[in-house]
Specification:
homodimer, 8-stranded mixed β-sheet, 118 residues, Jelly Rolls, globular, mainly beta
Chain lengths: 118, 118
């Protein structure tokens, strides 16, 4: 039960696309990630996912459109909805999602990572 | 499924100590509140609560100490732990907590509010 400073935690993340756990409550994780470039198309069967942009700009691609999320904005991606995050420049993102959430969802593959605590 | 801008939502909140629902996922609420002054001592039997400070400075009083949460920082208050938020100047806070969370916890009383969606 201590105060978590987001900037300090982001400084500890050197690799992009590797969400780190910085908090846990009610079976949910607070994760931080640095993203740049394009991820993989995927969905989560049982998890809704919140993306809060802390710094930079994140494009969330859906099959029918793209939403741009800027610093101070968030978007909730409901379970079952295919999405693919993309960022031209590095973006710092705070995620709020069930502890069971796998970053690549049901797609799996080489970009799947097991989130570490920092 | 649309992008939520925190500043825009905060502009719609004119009353302090009235958390507003701005998102829902996995049975959890994202709520925004403006706080100033001192709240009531309370705890939640079954809900962990996350306080992310967006603007200003929040003091979270516990029975044995006080933690100061500044903009860009968060604190998780576990279920069962008595706490009492306090802020000298108005602070803008984002809350993550189960949809069942009552602002005054088990203490109840006149400062209990039923959160509205904005």
């Amino acid at each position: 039960m201590s105060v978590i400073n987001l900037a300090e935690k982001f400084r500890q993340i050197d690799k992009q696309w590797t969400p780190k756990i910085v908090g846990e409550l009610n079976g949910q994780h607070v994760r931080l990630a640095k993203l740049q470039g394009e991820f993989v198309w995927h969905h989560h069967d049982d998890e809704d996912e919140l993306f809060l942009v802390i710094d930079g700009e994140l494009e969330m691609q859906f099959r029918d459109r793209t939403e741009t999320i800027r610093a101070g904005e968030f978007l909730i991606v409901p379970r079952g909805v295919e999405h693919c995050p993309r960022a031209v420049a590095e973006v710092q993102v705070m995620l709020f999602e069930p502890a069971s959430t796998v970053n690549t969802g049901t797609a799996g593959g080489e970009r799947t990572v097991d989130p570490e605590r920092i």
